[in-house]
Design brief:
167 residues, 7 helices, Arp2/3 complex 21 kDa subunit ARPC3
């Protein structure tokens, strides 16, 4: 497997800084009961589909460390985002038709649920599971799935146009 080397283009990698900015800004228009979408999932999904599993896992881990630094605590996004980056990168290498709206939405919903379940399990292991955890999990998955076709399609289009030889 050959990486496309999307990470070598500085502005592409720098676009990951939009994720913590959106997480901090948390636009009220894009919230449901004061819960926003999983911005990391919306950014990582197209990245991994274009750049492959190794880059997806590494960039997912880096993005998770960046986000974990914003809200220090007992819960980390690292295992979920690194695993999702690897999995989505493998799906992208299999040349499946993933540019369509429904597959992107479903992958984003699954990614958001994986991220949320990972966090819930980490809290459960510490014995500090909040009552509203499932509400947050489902609201975030719904919002992420609704935004995925628009956001992920846009990133796929931008990143694929920047790389010669990539469909």
């Amino acid at each position: 497997m050959v990486m496309v080397d999307l990470w070598r283009r500085g502005w592409c990698l720098a676009s990951a800084l939009l994720v913590p900015l959106l997480a901090l800004a948390s636009p009220r228009l894009l919230q449901l009961d004061a819960i926003g979408p999983a911005w990391a999932v919306l950014w990582l999904l197209p990245w991994a589909l274009v750049d492959g599993p190794i880059s997806g896992a590494l960039v997912g881990a880096g993005l998770a460390l960046l986000l974990d630094g914003l809200h220090p605590g007992p819960v980390s996004e690292l295992p979920a985002l690194a695993g999702l980056g690897w999995w989505w990168g493998r799906l992208g290498r299999r040349s499946l038709v993933l540019e369509r709206f429904l597959p992107l939405a479903l992958l984003a919903v699954v990614g958001s649920l994986v991220l949320g379940v990972s966090q819930v399990l980490q809290l459960q292991l510490r014995g500090t599971l909040p009552v509203a955890a499932l509400h947050v999990l489902w609201a975030q998955a719904l919002l992420t799935g609704l935004l995925a076709p628009l956001v992920c399609s846009l990133w796929l289009l931008i990143w694929r146009q920047q790389l010669p030889g990539v469909r």
